[in-house]
Structure formats: structure tokens, C-alpha cells
Amino acid sequence: MSQLRALAAVLRGAGVGGSQWLPWCGGGGPARRWVEPRRGCSSAATHGSSYVEQMYLAWLEDHKSVHESWDTFFHNIQASSPSGEAGERRPSALLQGRALSHSADTTRKVVEDHLAVHSLIRAYQIRGHHVAQLDPLGILEADLDSFVPSDLITTIDKLVRIGGRFYGLSASDLDRSFQLPPTTFIGGGDNPLPLKEIVRRLEISYCGHIGVEFMFINNVDQCQWIRQKIETPGIMQFSNAEKRTLLARLIRSTRFEDFLARKWSSEKRFGLEGCEVLIPALKTMIDTSSAAGIDNVIMGMPHRGRLNVLANVIRKDLDQIFCQFDSKLEAADEGSGDVKYHLGLYHERINRETDKNITLSLMANPSHLEAVDPVVQGKAKAEQFYRGDTQGKKVMCISIHGDAAFAGQGVVYETFHLSELPSYTTHGTIHVVVNNQIGFTTDPRVARSSPYPTDVARVVNAPIFHVNADDPEAVMYVCRLAAEWRSTFNKDVVVDLVCYRRFGHNEMDEPMFTQPLMYKQIRRQQRVLRKYSDRLIAEGVVTLQEFEEEVAKYDKICEEAYKSSKDEKISQIRHWLDSPWPDFFTAEGEPRSMNCVPTGLNEEVLQHIGQAASSVPLEDFKVHPGVSRILRGRAELVKSRQMDWALGEYMAFGSLLKDGVHVRLSGQDVERGTFSHRHHVLHDQGVDKRMCVPMNHLWANQAPYTVCNSSLSEYGVLGFELGFAMASPNALILWEAQFGDFHNTAQCIIDQFISPGQAKWVRHNGIVLLLPHGMEGMGPEHSSARPERFLQMSKDDPDHFPEFNGDFEVQQLYDCNWIVVNCSNPANYCHVLRRQILLPFRKPLIIFTPKSLLRHPDARSSFDELADGTKFKRVIPDEGLATQNPDQVKRVIFCTGKVYYELARERRQHKLERDIAIIRLEQISPFPFDLVRAEVEKYTNAELVWCQEEHKNMGYYDYVRPRLLTVVADRKPVWYVGRDPAAAPATGSKFTHLNELKRFMDTAFDLRAFHGNDA
């Protein structure tokens, strides 16, 4: 420390800022081997000269007595001093006043000038991208600012005007040689360089067609890796064979768009014109990754360029793509299908550059642009998980973005913040931004507040490579670099392809309305294929004839595919699956059976799971006293052959794990549970970070159980889990909202992927949403999971009583788009979770889970309700006194969820068990028409009531009422009991809440309430 303080004092005396000298010291620290002046020095020299002078004296006596960086500088001193004086190595010669003064001045000047040069180098590394030539049109600055940072000396003129003031350098220093610091590779070695050559090489590295942002990364090795790849002279070289491959890929990309434009000039296709280099860019990334061992690449992208990527990267058959343009195309399969530029694909093929097998998936995606980002991450994570790829060395993902969406959509930020979380990381994603420099019609200068659209990536220390998309070789180099970065460091990286959009937002749009200057320039802009082919022809890499033959060859392929598309029946949507399950479905995509086996369990399994759920499997593990009480309570329940909600869930998960089914539960605070009921992860109270997951200690050869708290995100995390569920049908993937109300932040995933996914993309998915729901006086943001939204999107017909030849339950589930349930007891909750896996197909499952019922003494189930042969009850009929004389029952109350217990309590208090039957709908959608009809027919003389705790314009009423009327064939009315319509889902006043509850309870049990009134 004394040496550091001494050197700092010298540098301050030389006018150098506090931290500027650090890079110059080379990381090894200043003069570590020099502590005090040598003993041979006089006291006058020791006390009258600076530390640098004393170190210089020591160095003259022994070069190895100082750090090697000082050794280099002192050699420079000798080289710049007058002959004779510099050659004098004896300390006595420098103790004379004039010689000593000259030595100090020379030393100070050398130090200051070298520090200035090193600061200049650092300025280019930090801010050089601001002056890089990135815009192919030469109109806008990619960073939205034409200002050139004052610390960048980009011209000799600027060195004369500004360099002297900022760095103390002048034009006379241009030919002086300076030793380079170890934090740069522009020298290609250890040799000093003249200042003008240093500036020239910095401009080539940082101010050409590549601009790099990386100096914010807080890892020295990573920064050094990038510096070496960017700064080393001549490193961006391509062989003639590589250039020919690049040209061939550029031909395919360009001519594909030209062919579509000729054949379907009036069709929207969201072509790639203006960024045709994207195709060779993606293929370069895949080639490089394949060479590093990757054999599965999962991709997501918006609509622009999707057809080209399908054709020339995924290698979808061209005739099947062209078939999608047929205006008379009829759906040959189930589902409504989607527009061609939303479809996905899964394809296994040989990578011709590496001769290795590779699987490519492009995920289907709606127009909600960045919504696919977390879905891609989740599917990649699942593929890695099931393959045991713990480092991402076999499976990776590539996400392609538009510039406006990348900057504007919050899910991008949410997804980036999953990238380093243990249960969510995919060990590095390559992000490619197709930077059109415009949104739909919006100028970027009014569309974002950051300099670049990619600045969001800085939050995870991802390097950002900006590159001019009209320089194909620069793009290829950057893409290769990005793939190598991902392979080396397993971290995210961003490639910003600064390009333009030759047409408007789509081919039918007129961009001149709002962007006249840009589109005047675009119309004059020579296309990148023409520029690059002319360049290679001039270089002698290819001949004009070879180029024209390659163009003609691909044009012929397109024409032949076009003819084939008209002759073959190839329009089936099943050809566009992005996540096939070949072992689960038949070759035709049908379930292998249409039966659902019982979901009960034998006593031995129940007891084994119950005991594990109420104990700690590790020795010397100290749990919290509160958790100990919970475990003791569970043990008492197991002893009495009963279960609460947490135990019912334990039974479901544990039994599936026994059968080899992976279970993954994700969401905010799911390990403990928002309401402190679950405790699936135990924390040792005496040892930091020592944790135990008892569920992973149930059986010797069980499947793994993953329970993981997520980031405070709904949109991103639900999308992630949806993607995870796509990878395999033999896994139970659950996402739990902290409160069901919060799922609205993830509404895009629900609306665009989960509800219509099978209809649009024939994509089965068994994801489970657990949404805590219940009106308990907790206010409008902690009460309602908005069941009305899910029910409104359920596709069953309210006016049609379905008829099936086989199992009514299974057939109805097969026809629905998702399943919506509100279980009222733990056994039924366990059954529905097990049914989710035992069904011969997969449907999303929405479960409205309780809050107060988690500990309600009446919300218990016996082990008998989970015994062998039992199954999920879609409807739980009344089992009390009302069933003894059903024809004398005056009122049948249908309800669902928690309100049943309030109704049952009120009925007991009013002593109306014989007069009123209460029937629970456990499965709300698809509506259990068959079972409801049986209950209605049982109570022939009773009036029918639907009772809910939600407000009348919310909850289940609008969904249930027309279906009940279909069941009774309009022979009798269906009355409503519940809260009045409201704008907010619940009151924030506990007093008002209780009054509302009392009011509708009184109505439910007033047998005169409905007479003379309309339904």
C-alpha cells in the first residue's frame, strides 16, 4: 500500500487524474519490487527528489529492481535523452542538479504522454462505437446523436485542435512511439507504435462498420477476450471459400424475397429486403455453434423475414411455404390455423458446414412480437434439462428481435433477468436485433430514450456488437464472434444489425407518408447482394458467370417448388409443428387412446408420501419452529388418514414422481407458498444456504422435482413455463401466481398462446396455472383471479348439449381448448393434477386455488377419497339430508369453490338441510352437462339458483346461466344470488365485504326471495 500511495502522489504531482494511471500499470500494480531508494543514494537525492526520480536511480543500478512497466518507460527515457547523459548508468552522474532536474522533467513528460495515449486507447474502447459507420443509408446515427465524443481523436486536425487541450498531445507527437498497455491488442505484440498508427488502428477496430459496447462488463477476462477479437490487426479475414459460401447464402436470401415479390406482389409477406444479410448471419451462428458441439438450436422471431428463415435457415420445403399463399387454401386439419408469417417449424437435418446432425426449431409466434422471447427460453431450458445438458453445451437458443420492440417491450427486460437465475438460465442466448431504424411508422428519435435499442442488454453485462448490415463480411465476423462468446462464457450476447426496411411495415404500406428522406435514400440504395457480388468479382473470388449461374440455379429451385405447391395436398397445418411429440401421439397426430384411467392411489403410497411430507430427510438439519409445528400437524393428519390442501398437493406430486413424471413448480415464492402453507424447500436455521427438498427424497428411482422461486415477473415467467411445457408431454409443469389477480400482467401469454395455441398451431400443451382466488375482504387486487376471462375464452357452446359415443368426460375434454376448475377439497385437487398427466392428450389446466381454505377445518379430505379406483369429481352432489327426499327439496343451489363452505354453514344455522341442496361444480369448463342434468332431474320440484361470491358481472354467472338453461331446456328459470355488479372486483372495506356476504347469504336461504321475480 505504501508503494501505491507513493506512486499516486507522483502521478497527482504530474497532473494525472486519480484512476487514469491504473490501466497503464498493466494490472500488476506499480513497481512492486521497488520499496525504498537504494542504499547507495545520498540523503539529498532521497529527500530532495520525487519517488519516480528515486526509482529511476534504483533502476539505473539494477533494471530488475522495478516493475517491468517502469523498466520499459525508463528505457524510453534513455532513448529520448541526449547522447551521453542517457547512457550514463552511474547514480553519481545523476546527483548533479542539472542532470537530476532534466531526469525528473523527462520522466514526468514520458509518464504524462504515455498516460495520455493509454487514456486515448481506453476512450476508443469505451466510446468508439458512437462514431462507427453503422447506418447503411448514411442518414441517421445509430445512437441517435451526431455528436462526436471530445476524447476521441478521429482526425489529425482534431489532434491539433483538441488533443493538446484534452491529452497534452499535438501533431508533433504523431511520429513518436509509445509503449502500449496490456489492455490493448492493436500492436499485435509488445512493440511500441507511433501515435498516428495507434489512432489509425483504433479507428479500424472501433470506428468502422463494427461498433462494440463491452467496457461496462465487470469481468477482466471477458473484456480482454473481446479486445483481442476486435483489435488484433488483420483478425477479420475470410478465405475465398468462406466468401463464396457467404455469397451463395446471400443469393438465396435475396432471390427468395424477389421470387415472392414476383409471384404474390399484392400479398403481405413481411419480407427481409434491406436486411437480407440476416440469413447468412444466422447460418454463421449455427455453423459456429455446431462446430462447438451444439446440436439443437431453438429460435424465436417476429414476422419480418420469418418466411425466409423458414426457407433458408430451417430449410422448410419451399412448396409447403408457397402453398400458404394459395387464396383458396382450406384447413385440412383441426384448428383455425394462423397466417403464414406466424407459423413455426421443427426440422432435423445435417449441417453441411460441420457434417453434424442438428435440430432446428422456430417457435410459432403471434404479432405480439417479443412475447415469444421467454417461450423460447423455457423450451430451451427444458431440452437442456431432459438431456442433462447442465452447461448448455448441446442446446442453445437464438432470439431475433425488431429494434422498436426490443426497446419498447417490457418482456425483453423480464426475459433478460431470467438469464442468470439457476432454475431459468439457458447458459447464454444470442440475440439478433434487425434494426430497421424505424418502428411501424415511428421515428426512433421519438420511440426510445436510450441511444441504442439494445441498451436494455447492458443490465446483464451482455456485450453488444453493432454492425453495418451492408457489410456482409463484417456481419459474418460479428456473428461468428457472438457464437464463440456464447460457447466460451455461456452468457447472453447481442448482435445489432443496423439495416433498413426497403418497403413499409409490410409490402402494402406507404412509408413516404412519414419518412420521405429515408425512403428517397432507400430508393437510391444499391442492394447488398449487388455490392458484395461486384466486390468479389473485382477481387477475383468469383467470376460474373459463376455468380449468374448460382442465381439461376436458385431461381430454378423456386420455380419447381412453385409448380409442386399447386399439385400436392400439402396444406396441412400439422406440417408446421414446432414441438412434436412423436412418442405421445400417433403418426397422424391423434391420441393413442381415448380413455382416462382412475387417478386414485393405494394406502401404502399415501402413507409413504404423507410420512415424507411431515418429516425432514436429512440428519442434523434444524428447521424453523414454525415449520416444525406445520410438520407435526401434517403427521397428525396422516395418522388420522386425512389431508389438508398442502398434503393433497404433496400426494399428487409425490405419486407422479414415483411414476417417473417430472414435476416443475415455478412462480413468486412458491417454495414456501405465498400463504406459508407449502414449505417444499426447508432451510437449515443454523447453516446458511443449506436447504432440503423432501420431495426429492421420496423414492429410490423417482423423477426429479423442481420447485423454484421466480423473479418478480408474470409475463416473462409464465411464458418461460409455457415453453418448458412444450418440450415433453410427460411432465407436470405448473406456474403459480402470488395472487390470482396478478395473472393479468401475463395476459398476453394467456390470450395469444395458452387459450388458442392448439387452434392456431395444433400445439398441445399441458401447462397448469394455479391462481389463488377468493373474496375474503383483502381488497380489489388480492381477491379475484378473474374467472370470467378464462370462461369467456372457453370454446364450448352454451346452447348445445353435447352428445358423445364414448366416455363423455374424456371426449369433452378432448374437444375443449382448456380446462377450468375450482376445487373445493384437497382430494379433488390431487385428482385433477393426476388426471392432467393420465389423460391421453394435453390441455392447459386453469385452477382457481384457495386462500382461507388452505387451513379451513372443513376443507379436509379422507384418504378414502383418494383410494384405488377413485377419480376426479367434476361435480360434487349434495350428500346430506336433502338426498333422502329429493322431490321435497325446495331449492337447489349450484356453486363453486370457497362459497360452498359459507353456504353450508348458513344452511346449518337455518336448519334447512332437508329443504335446500347444495351442489358444487368442481369443473366449470368444459361444462359438465351430463352430471348437471342428472342433478336437476333428481330434484324435480326445486327451483334452481346459481350462487357466487363474485360480483354479478364477473365470476361464473354469465358462463353458467345459459348452460344451465340448456340443461333444463328452459322449463324453469335460473336465479342469481351473489354480489351486485361492480367496476372493481372487490371492495377494499372489510365492513362492506361482510355486509355484502350477509346480504347474499340471507337471499340464498330466504325461500320466498324469488317468487314473483324474473330470473
From TrEMBL:
Enzyme class, first EC level, given as a word = oxidoreductase
Record InterPro entries: 2-oxogl_dehyd_N, 2oxoglutarate_DH_E1, DH_E1, KGD_C_sf, ODO-1/KGD_C, THDP-binding, Transketolase-like_Pyr-bd
Task: Tell me the Gene Ontology biological-process terms attached to this UniProt entry.
Answer: glycolytic process; tricarboxylic acid cycle
Q: Which GO terms describe its cellular component?
A: mitochondrion; nucleus; oxoglutarate dehydrogenase complex
Is Nucleus given among the entry's keywords? Answer: yes
E.C. number(s) listed in UniProt:
1.2.4.2
Q: Which UniProt keywords apply?
A: Calcium, Glycolysis, Isopeptide bond, Magnesium, Metal-binding, Mitochondrion, Nucleus, Oxidoreductase, Thiamine pyrophosphate, Transit peptide, Ubl conjugation
According to the entry, every stretch annotated as the Transketolase-like pyrimidine-binding domain falls at 643-856
Superkingdom of the source species: Eukaryota
Q: Which cofactor does it need?
A: thiamine diphosphate; Mg(2+)
Q: Which GO molecular function annotation, any one, does this entry have?
A: oxoglutarate dehydrogenase (succinyl-transferring) activity
Catalytic activity, per the record?
N(6)-[(R)-lipoyl]-L-lysyl-[protein] + 2-oxoglutarate + H(+) = N(6)-[(R)-S(8)-succinyldihydrolipoyl]-L-lysyl-[protein] + CO2
Classification via PANTHER family: 2-OXOGLUTARATE DEHYDROGENASE, 2-OXOGLUTARATE DEHYDROGENASE-LIKE, MITOCHONDRIAL
Q: What is the name of the protein in this document?
A: 2-oxoglutarate dehydrogenase complex component E1
Q: Which organism is it from?
A: Gasterosteus aculeatus aculeatus (three-spined stickleback)
